[in-house]
Amino acid sequence: MKYEERIIAFIDILGFKNLVNNDLMCEDIGAILKLPYVLRQGDMLKRLKITGMMMTSISDSLVFSIGLKERGAMNKITKLLSVFSQTLLAQYSLLLRGGIAVGKIYHDNDIVYGPGLVKAYELESKIAIFPRIVIERSDFESSILSCSTPSQLTLRKEYVSGDDCILMLDCFHYTSQEKLKLCRFKLEQIEASDLRVQQKINWMITMISTKLKEKAINL
What we know:
By secondary structure, the chain is an alpha+beta fold. The chain is built from ten helices and eight strands. This is Guanylate cyclase domain-containing protein.
């Protein structure tokens, strides 16, 4: 068992604890937690042309990782995170918050640990704050080296600068207007009693509305 340099995404499912307290949502909870295993065993990753990915569920969080030198590694993990984010929002009205880091970890079908995982977790828990997936610029630059030049150019468009000068994933970069409107509608139907939760929802509604305006201009 040796550490390997990998790209690691630590993802927290916001609002998941509320689902756990609802007996009627037991089936949905199981479906969400089993997603990494379904993806790993099914043919969806093959259709998305994603290989070499490891995935693990930890309570209401998920860990994805891929070897740093795997061909197109950053492109693959970005595609997976974008699809996953949109699926949870459109189907379950759930938002994600996460951190992506480059570092040393051990990750197999059963366990995951290492300093790289700690780094990704700290980005998610201390830096992301809002429902966004963030990465440090230095890690981003090293993560795209295994990607082709066209993929690198695309990734630079998918990861945008936040107000705090850290990069965050634009998971709606390739999303259609119809899907964006559906996601915004799902968010608008949520009745949050907690002010902090409502602030996170409002943040994402603003992000989606901005994307819709951008797409309307480019038509």
